Amino acid sequence: MKKKSLVATCTIAVVSGISLFAIAQLPPPPRMHSVTQRGVLELLPATSTPEIKNEVTIEVIGDDRVIRSNGIPNHKTGTFPNRGNPNRISAQKHEYRVPARPEVADRITPMHGEFGVAVNGVPFDPGAAEFFAGEPGWQYEPLSGAIALGIDVSHAHVQPTGKYHYHGLPTGLIDSIRVESGKHSPLVGWAADGFPIYAVYGYSKPDDASSRVQKLTSSYQLKEGNRPGGDAPGGKYDGTFVRDYEFVAGSGDLDECNGRQCFTPEFPEGTYAYFMTEQWPVVPRNYRGTPSNDFRHGPRPGGTGGQMAAGPQGQGGPGGWARPSGRGGPGLGPGGPPRPGEVLPWFVQESLNLSESQTEQLAALQTLVDERLQSILTKDQLRQLQRGELPGIRGNRAGGRPQ
């Protein structure tokens, strides 16, 4: 009995120590579906002019390129809320720091949140919290049309926090910066690892700026045959799910990160660069460099509780946000403590050098855990977690019982 009591006390202590990390700061609550075929992607026309003016600054400070914005696009959008998306666009307080002089890393890193940020300050966030109701790891591709998500003609929609974000080619932005056939794409944005992002058009010879300009193609292809079935979805690999695609080296112009080493107008001496493509993945899903933690979903590594690490307006908690250098606030690991119900903290995942498949399966498992946790707790209990109002928790970060 004493052993059980000790275990229970330790469990309470750990949960108490991390319970200030709000469930509200997770990605949008996951939804489960049984659809196994892609549909028709119906894009909303750009009929709405944002009521708030776009604000964005991009500057190099020390070793970082700092992008700050209010997240309001500089172009017309679809109407939000709408039938597929009940959220309204609102001003954010985005601040992203990426390496000003990025370097190619020893290994590829899968995306764990937003891929990057556009030059207008709107983030690229190609994933969606939509999963198959069965075997973990089957995430729906938001541009497949299988699930109606209220996406507009710029392949964007709005999160519950009011954050407008791009899932695919940002046509409104592309028109405003004049991406045109026959000309190399201008700079479209910055990836989380600091390398530049371009759209569709690049030199036919990567190391020759005098070569003709062409549409660059992805090297991802649909898998052949049918999905496993059983607890997993069945049916033909048709692009309904992210896992319907596989990388086929040499089948296109770009590598598994949808990028290449090349010359660009902004980097005439060469750089690694990402290209958004007309084919899947459209927005890249892997990094060649080391991504900044500022683009991760959920509480930012380095937050210490209280106001959370990244609220709806992006305010940092007392510990601030972890930067590319990896500095973080106090807690269970170099980047701060995990949130309630977290299966494997971000720093543990990074240390395990997980494969892309393992990362996808862990993400799906985490989705199920998050959904279950939210179904167990009442709305009032969730609100308490969000506000840090649990009795005996404030000022008690060591996790001990209140006396």
What does it look like?
The protein has one domain (20-387). The chain is globular, with a radius of gyration of 22 Å. With 403 residues, it is of the alpha+beta class. The chain has helices at residues 2-18, 171-176, 346-352, 356-376, 379-387, and strands at residues 31-33, 56-61, 64-69, 94-99, 109-110, 116-118, 123-124, 130-132, 156-158, 164-166, 189-191, 196-199, 201-203, 213-215, 220-222, 245-247, 259-262, 271-276, 286-287.
Note the topology.
Blueprint: H1 2-18, E1 31-33, E2 56-61, E3 64-69, E4 94-99, E5 109-110, E6 116-118, E7 123-124, E8 130-132, E9 156-158, E10 164-166, H2 171-176, E11 189-191, E12 196-199, E13 201-203, E14 213-215, E15 220-222, E16 245-247, E17 259-262, E18 271-276, E19 286-287, H3 346-352, H4 356-376, H5 379-387
Parallel strand pairs: 1-8, 12-18
Antiparallel strand pairs: 2-3, 3-4, 5-19, 6-7, 6-11, 9-10, 11-12, 13-14, 15-16, 17-18
Question: Structural class per helix/strand content?
Answer: alpha+beta
Shape: globular
Q: Tell me how many strands there are.
A: 19
> Runs with pLDDT <50, length 5+?
1-26, 299-337, 392-403
Number of domains: 1
Helix content: 10-25%
Largest sheet: 6 strands, mixed
Strand order of the largest sheet: 7-6-11-12-18-17
| Overall pLDDT metric | 82
Helix-strand topology string: HEEEEEEEEEEHEEEEEEEEEHHH
Strand content: 15-25%
Question: What's the gyration radius in Å?
Answer: 22 Å
Distance between the termini: 22 Å
- Helix count, per DSSP? 5
Pfam families: YHYH (PF14240)
Biased composition (Gly residues): 300-334
Keywords: Signal
Region (Disordered): 287-344
